[in-house]
Design brief:
CATH class of the largest domain: Alpha Beta
Number of helices: 17
Protein name: Uridine 5'-monophosphate synthase
CATH architecture of the largest domain: Alpha-Beta Barrel
Oligomer: single chain
Pathway: Pyrimidine metabolism; UMP biosynthesis via de novo pathway; UMP from orotate: step 2/2; Pyrimidine metabolism; UMP biosynthesis via de novo pathway; UMP from orotate: step 1/2
Distance between the termini: 27 Å
InterPro entries: Aldolase_TIM (IPR013785), OMPdecase (IPR014732), OMPdecase_AS (IPR018089), OMPdeCOase_dom (IPR001754), OPRT (IPR023031), Or_phspho_trans_dom (IPR004467), PRTase-like (IPR029057), PRTase_dom (IPR000836)
Radius of gyration: 26 Å
Strand content: 15-25%
Strand order of the largest sheet: 9-10-11-12-13-14-15-16
Organism: Polysphondylium violaceum
CATH topology of the largest domain: TIM Barrel
EC number: 2.4.2.10, 4.1.1.23
Number of strands: 16
Length: about 475
């Protein structure tokens, strides 16, 4: 964190004005990080004080632009948007706006404004504790090719944001810290008696405590090769897949949503040399029979790839046991891996245990999905990660949109919704490019569907996706 270039008098005047308009609140407040604090800074009220808002924007501008000159500014929604707007207007700096989610109509853009790939964006936030909100904005700016090197905030609560941002190559600039704010209020006689003791005790107790990012926060972990991760894997299929990817030099999986068995077999033969995994939805195959499975297994053995049946099991343990082992499809006899939802709770995994002890198949937990409006978010995602950590013998990894801080290197992370054309479709599917998924979201395997199987030359497209995703993996070393 850089030291403010503002004078002590300037900071004092600002702090006292914030206190005067009720932005400094005393009591008991639960922060986004989960910490219970006796002091809360509510900068949303500044929108009703235009002169003060303009002053805040000016001070933040001085704090960062004396040392760095980013080309664009972007406020973290929503409180920082007026601050970023004030900075943009007063100093003629172009601005981009990050939406909480992409629109379902019009341009469907997540980042609005005029920019070009490689432009450097200054991220503007009102205050930081762990830095999670800032990292979410940085992630989305990176997704459209923008770069971020600097973050400016009015207040640093001194609870770990600096450390977390520095880990990701981001420099934090702040106008003042929580310690400076409290000292200013004390010197001005605005914080006294029992309340002062409470606040001082809180500050002392939490001064050097780093608030960890939530498990649902994105994280860029140190590079560990697939060879090394094979040694860490506790599930045999995860071990096998890591070794396969390392030796074959591909982290491309292809989703084949075709309904005629011969078309699936023909495609598997064409692209088999390029992939590590072929993903099926066997229940949509109109002319399914056991010979189809035998033929598919023969092609998989010939080209050295694994078969992934994307069944998305979601019932109670006893039911999924029968769905996995019996019926027309007898999935347990041929699938190397299957997907499961967590809505039935961790007992669903017990329905697979006996079968996978024999077959060695791996379970992939659906932690996140690529469809717009998916409810696989927040606490559901956190619980899926915890379920995987508690069942590492059976769970080989996760279907996810990004590496989360609780996902360790023994898990395989597979990301669907990948396409060079990242515009999305009319039914809510949202796409990301191979490079973004592997380098920025820091997952392991890209899953490509229509971008390959609907192509007029699927082999050629598979080569392009394989090359792009493997190059992205190698560039992380």
């Amino acid at each position: 964190m850089t030291t403010s270039i503002l004078s002590k008098e300037e900071i004092k005047e600002l702090v006292l004005k914030l206190n005067e308009i009720g932005a400094v609140k005393l009591g008991e407040f639960k922060l986004k990080s989960g910490i219970i604090s006796p002091i809360y800074i509510d900068l949303r009220v500044t929108v009703s004080s235009p002169v003060l808002l303009a002053s805040i924007a000016s001070m933040m501008y001085k704090t960062v632009y004396a040392q760095s000159k980013p080309e664009l500014v972007c406020g973290v929604p929503y409180t920082a948007l007026p601050i970023a707007t004030g900075m943009s207007i007063a100093h003629n700096i172009p601005m981009v706006v990050r939406r909480k989610e992409a629109k379902a109509y019009g341009t469907k853009q997540l980042i609005e404004g005029i920019f070009k790939e490689g432009d450097n964006v200054l991220v503007v936030e009102d205050l930081v504790t762990s830095g999670a909100s800032v990292l979410e904005t940085v992630r989305d700016l990176n997704s459209v090719g923008l770069t971020v090197t600097d973050v400016v905030v009015l207040l640093d609560r001194q609870q770990g944001a600096k450390q977390e941002l520095e880990k990701r190559g981001l420099k934090l600039h702040s106008v003042f810290t929580m310690e400076e704010l409290i000292n200013t209020l004390v010197e001005a006689g605005k914080l006294t008696g029992p309340t002062l003791e409470l606040v001082k005790n809180f500050l002392e107790a939490n001064k050097n405590v780093v608030v960890p990012l939530p498990s649902s926060a994105p994280v860029r972990a140190p590079f560990v090769s697939f060879q090394e991760r094979a040694k860490l894997a506790t599930n045999p299929t995860a071990n096998k897949l890591f070794q396969l990817m390392a030796s074959k030099k591909t982290n491309l999986a292809v989703a084949v949503d075709l309904t005629v068995k011969q078309e699936i077999l023909d495609l598997a033969e064409k692209i088999g040399s390029e992939i590590c995994v072929l993903k099926t939805h066997v229940d949509i195959v109109q002319d399914y029979d056991q010979q189809f499975i035998k033929d598919l297994q023969a092609i998989a053995a010939k080209h050295n790839f694994l078969i992934f049946e994307d069944r998305k099991f979601a019932d109670i343990g006893n039911t999924v046991k029968y769905q996995f082992e019996n019926g027309v499809y007898e999935i347990s006899k041929w699938a190397d891996m299957v997907t499961i939802h967590g809505v039935a709770g961790p007992a669903i995994i017990d329905g697979f245990r006996e079968s996978i002890k024999t077959t060695g198949a791996g379970l992939l937990l659906l932690a996140q999905m690529s469809s717009k409006g998916s409810m696989c978010v927040g606490e559901y995602t956190n619980q899926m990660v915890e379920m995987g950590k508690s069942n590492q013998d059976a769970v080989m990894g996760f279907i996810c949109q990004e590496r989360l801080s609780a996902m360790s290197d023994n898990f395989v992370l597979m990301t669907p919704g990948v396409q060079f054309n990242s515009a999305g479709d009319s039914m809510g599917q949202q796409y990301n490019t191979p490079e973004y998924v592997i380098k920025e979201k820091n997952t392991d395997v890209i899953i490509v569907g229509r971008g390959i199987y609907k192509s007029s030359n699927p082999k050629e497209e598979a080569i392009k996706y394989r090359t792009a995703s493997w190059s992205a993996y190698e560039s992380k070393q």
